[in-house]
Amino acid sequence: MARRVGILGGIAVAAAAAMILAPALGIVPLSDARSAVVLWSLRVPRVLLAFLAGAGLSLAGMTFQAIFRNPLVEPYTLGVSGGAAFGASLAIRAGWTFTLLGVSPIPLSAFAGALGSLALVYGVAVAGRSFSTAVLLLAGAAMSFFFWSLIMVLQYLSDFMGSFRILRWLMGGVETVGYGGVLDILPFVLAGSAIILSYGRELNMLTVGEDLAASRGVSVGPVRGLLFAASTLMVGGVVASCGPIGFVGLIAPHIGRRLVGTDHRILGPATALFGGLFLLACDTVARLVIAPAEVPVGVLTALLGGPFFLWLLLRRPRAGGSLA
After folding, report:
1. To which CATH superfamily is domain 2-316 assigned?
2. pTM above 0.85, yes or no
3. Are 68 and 141 in contact (CB under 8 A)?
4. Tens of pLDDT along 73-103?
């Protein structure tokens, strides 16, 4: 335990150091006359947004993997990201310009799409009178394919500019001016993280099996529903502001298990910190590698996530498909 806590502390130190160092990196030196504006209006908010988004996506991925007892599950798999992406694409295609409580239509529609996906997945489970993990997982995968098919239809029906805007949003990114984006996702990440981290023991039980969890006093149905809803809302909030940034929720939990083991009471904080650090590092590379132009950070995480996913597939026979 002491070793794992020490590793967790090391991850926290690395994350803090990255958050301090990242704002200093860029094509505009901090000695420039514009440095104060660039630092506090662009770089610091972007660093905070990247860290929060990475932490939220990673914790959600860890939770989904525990609930479904499948190491290959991540937010994309369950249709949450697909629903949010469809909502945003619909707002772009329709040209909506209204605001609600100061929030623009694209993030509002993306969040509504995430909630719609959650409702549809649970609706399928209710219709089939089965809330098993297999049914929920298959329903989520079906919803994901369905929503991405609708997005392709919207792109086909859009003009060149509209299609480009949809495509660019689907690439994901943490570009922001000011702290509006940070404040938009902060409540979702804080609330979702608080719920997930407080259920570390229950996640340990669910990972082993629902029957064992029930025998140890865990109310499997309500707990699983609460964790699923908290993770979905957190992902919906992140995707609404940043677009569908893939594979963070797959990579970070696995690296966390390698570093601190499978006890979710330690794995949860480690996954959140490493996920924030990972996305922050990816975004820093993405904005510097071809400066002054930028690579959308979702493109970079996809380039890293594809080979990582294949590596997981190749090692699963030896690992027995477990989350260890």
Report:
1. ABC transporter involved in vitamin B12 uptake, BtuC (1.10.3470.10)
2. yes
3. no
4. 887 777 787 888 899 889 888 888 777 766 7
